[in-house]
Structures are given as C-alpha cells and as structure tokens.
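Hi Y.,

Following your request, here is the sequence exactly as I used it, all 126 residues.
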Amino acid sequence: MNYPYNDAYWPDFPVLNVELCNEDDGFRTKSIVALLDTGADASMVPMDLLRQIQAYVIGSSHVRSHWGDRHEVYLFQIDVRLDQITLPGVAVIGDEHGDEVVLGRDVLNKLRLLLDGPTNQTELLD
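Below is the corresponding structure, written out as tokens. Let me know if you'd prefer a different format.
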C-alpha cells in the first residue's frame, strides 16, 4: 500500500494511515495520519486520542528532547493497526501538548517500509 507524503510540511513528511486501538475494551480511533520519524526513539500519541480509546497507563519514564531537556512522561499500552497489520501492545508516550501521532523507531523497526523521497511516497511492504 502506498501513501503520499504530507505536503503540509517542508520538506514533505512521510506518513501512514493508522488506527489506534484498545482491543481489550473494543475502542479504536478512526483512521488518522501518523508521521514517520526515523530519528525518534519512541512513538507519541496525543492524550485526547489515548483518552478516546481509554488506553491503559502502564508506567512512567523520562525522555530527553533534541534540545537536551529531560521530562517525565506517562506510557500507555495500545495496539496500532496499519492496513491488515496489527502491532499489539505498543508502549507509547502520552503527549500532553502535541496534536500529531508520531511513530518512532520502536514501531518502524517492526515494519518493512520504503520511504521513496524522490516520488514522495511511503510504501508499506508485506
């Protein structure tokens, strides 16, 4: 499946459409655009989406921003669906301030992706 890069950013940003799920309780989001950030160690999800699916808090941790600031964050367990692929039990950071889903290497390393910059397409491979 191919996804065009999001041209609302400069340069254009690779994205995938995902559903965020709490399969235990039967909650899921509609299909939403997630940014693919190969430089991020972890994935982040806005708190309003985590509340919508009633995601479980599984603990806390600390993250360091690219400026070196250290922050305590809460971790939530969700399932991530991409087309016919389900990644169960993904630990994500609850983002209190942002409004974008960011998939970091913790998720991206579980997928076969082709980021085709010259054509501005992301391909999710089998």
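The helical segments are 47-52, 105-108.

Thanks again,
Q.
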